[in-house]
Structures are given as structure tokens and as C-alpha cells.
Amino acid sequence: MKFSELLKQLENLSDRTFDRFDLADDPDLVTIAPIAEAQAGQLTYLEGDKFADFLDSTTAAVILPDRPALVAQASDRGLPWVAVRDPKALFALAVRFFYQPFKPKPGIHPTAWIDPSVQLGQDVSIGPHVAIYENAIIGDRVCLMANVTVYAGAEIGADSWLHANCVIHERSILGRHCIIHSGAAIGDEGFGFVPTSQGWLKLDQTGRVVLEDHVDVGVNGAIDRPAMGETRIGRGTKLDNMVHIGHGCKLGEGCVVAAQVAMAGGVELGNGVILAGQVGITNNVKLGDRAIASSGSGLHSDVPPGETVSGYPAIPNREWLKSAAVYRRLPELSKRLKRIQKHLNLTDN
């Protein structure tokens, strides 16, 4: 595909017009590559100044941030380029012209087991050794890869894709266009036990899990159902690998949760919340819309809308940065304190 043709296709796909670009020799583009490796005939992107030096070595077509210095740098080297405010987002659209994920053709593998009461939509793909139990509903064009198990009464919305070895437990509901990656367990029992004089008494988890449309769940993720009510993941929320969502949690729309985050029961996230890797959240904590928790934070109390928190226990990010700066100086400050104590003839006591 010519670079000029790609730009036309991207204009149509993104519903905008590019007014800052240079076709140079309008190369034929055959694939994509990271800017550190990209060569002629490839498309790449530059997200920020951190990788700007690679503009001096690459010979690829580049999607640039709309900044004069970077545009001039690309132009001076004769590179084909287009400048936009969101280069990574435009590159994500461009990838579709060079790569299509594997998806099997519609059909049911002979080793799959499907209860007669199951409702199957049109053009479904059912892979080897899939098991679908009674009264489950599988929507149109759903793809179930090898060894997927769908328990009784579960519903899978149209155009969803369940990768190998994931499990959808009883009465769970998945909306349209959901993607569940390998090893994930949706709707398993929450961790419910009552202490008694005879030991731990199991509290049956009668609730359900609901995933709204366009939810992604990463590899080995776990979303537990509650004793009563539901655990709900809002539309467009994306969960990375090995994320644990405890029973009764409510996640709003458009949240992003990075790998190894763990939420205890009853946590509530507003819309657009971002949790970086390995964040831990205790029972019933609430985060307002667009709140952010940085990597490794431990949340024990509510976070207001728009607030960024860091550290363990988590505090507002600005306070944490100041504390971290002091922490790095503790050895020096300790030496100073000892010198002062010695000068004043004071002891540690």
C-alpha cells in the first residue's frame, strides 16, 4: 500500500483530514516496525522526545507528534511523515491494514460437547474440547477457542472472543465484543467463609458477574461473583494479565487496570480510573472518576475524583514525591543529626 493511500484510508477511518504531511517518494509500505528498527517500506510512529534520536537513523514512514522541531527533523532527512496530535492512536488504526488477528472459520469442532438446551447464535466458532453446559446462550459470531468451558446459564454476547482454557462460570453475563484471554476465570466463587467455633463455614456465592460491552480480561485474570448481587465491569474497561477482582466490586466505564492489581471485595471504581501495576485495594474502598493509583500503591481509604495517589499506604502523589525525596536523603540526614548530637554533647536517649 502506498503511503498516500494509507493516509486516505486513515482519514476515512478516523473521520478527519490530515493537513500536515510529506509523502516524500510515496513509498510502498508492507509492514510495521518499532522506530528503533524500522526501515524503508515500513511504517512506524514516534510518541515523544524520548525516541526522537531515531529520526536520524530510520528510513521508514513515520507518524509524528505535531511539533515543529520533530517535523523539521523528519523533513530534513527526506522521510515520509504525517504529523498529528495523537500519533500512537493513529498508528493503532494503521496497524489494521497490516495485520489481522487469527480467527477460525465458523463451525463446531467434533470434539466439542454442547448441551442440547444451549442457544447458539449464527456463525459461531466452537473449538476442540469446548464444553457448554445447559441453558447457556452463545451470541452471533462468538469464537470459543480450545478447551473453553461455559457453565450453566451463562451468556456470551455477540462478537465476543474467548481464548483457550478460559472458564465462564454459572450465570455470568458477557456483553458484546468482549475479549477473554487464556486462563481467565469469570464468575468463580468469591472468597466467602464465616468463622465459627467449629472452623470456617462456607458461605455460598449466589450472585453473578456482569461484563458490559467491549470489556477485555487479560491472561489468568479472575473476577469473582459475590454471595448476593453482582460484580460488574463497566463498558470499555480493560484488565491486564493476572488481575484479581474480588466479590461485589463495581468498575465503571473506560477504566484501565494494569497487571497484578488485586481488589478486595466491594471496591468501587468510577469512570476512567487508571490503576498501574501491582496496586492493592482493601475492602469497600471507592475511587472517584478519573482517579489514578501509581505502581505498587496500597489503597486503604477512598480517593476523590481526579486525584493521583502513590505509595503504601497511598497518599496524594505530590506528598509522596516530597516524602520520597526526603527518604533518599535519610542516610545523609542521619549523619548530620549525629554530628549535631555530638557537637551538643547529646545522646540518642
Question: What are the defining features of this structure?
Answer:
single chain, 349 residues, alpha/beta, 12-stranded mixed beta sheet, 10-stranded parallel beta sheet, 5 helices, 38 strands, 28% strand
Notes on the structure:
It is built from 5 helices and 38 strands. The protein is of the alpha/beta class and 349 residues long. The strands form 5 sheets. It has a 12-stranded mixed beta sheet with strand order 6-9-12-15-18-23-26-29-32-35-37-38, covered by helices on one side. Strands 7-10-13-16-19-24-27-30-33-36 form a 10-stranded parallel beta sheet, with no helix packed on it.
Give the tally of β-strands. Answer: 38
Outline: flat
Number of H/I helices: 5
Range of strand content: 25-35%
Task: Supply the helix-strand structural class.
Answer: alpha/beta
Euclidean distance between termini CA atoms: 77 Å
What's the story with the biggest beta sheet?
12 strands, mixed
Strand and helix map with partners:
Blueprint: H1 3-14, E1 21-22, E2 31-32, E3 42-45, E4 61-65, H2 68-76, E5 81-84, H3 87-94, E6 107-108, E7 113-114, E8 119-120, E9 125-126, E10 131-132, E11 137-138, E12 143-144, E13 149-150, E14 155-156, E15 161-162, E16 167-168, E17 173-174, E18 179-180, E19 185-189, E20 193-196, E21 199-202, E22 208-211, E23 216-217, E24 222-225, E25 230-233, E26 238-239, E27 244-245, E28 250-251, E29 256-257, E30 262-263, E31 268-269, E32 274-275, E33 280-281, E34 286-287, E35 292-293, E36 298-299, E37 308-310, E38 315-316, H4 317-328, H5 330-343
Parallel strand pairs: 2-3, 3-4, 4-5, 6-9, 7-10, 8-11, 9-12, 10-13, 11-14, 12-15, 13-16, 14-17, 15-18, 16-19, 17-22, 18-23, 19-24, 22-25, 23-26, 24-27, 25-28, 26-29, 27-30, 28-31, 29-32, 30-33, 31-34, 32-35, 33-36, 35-37
Antiparallel strand pairs: 1-5, 20-21, 37-38
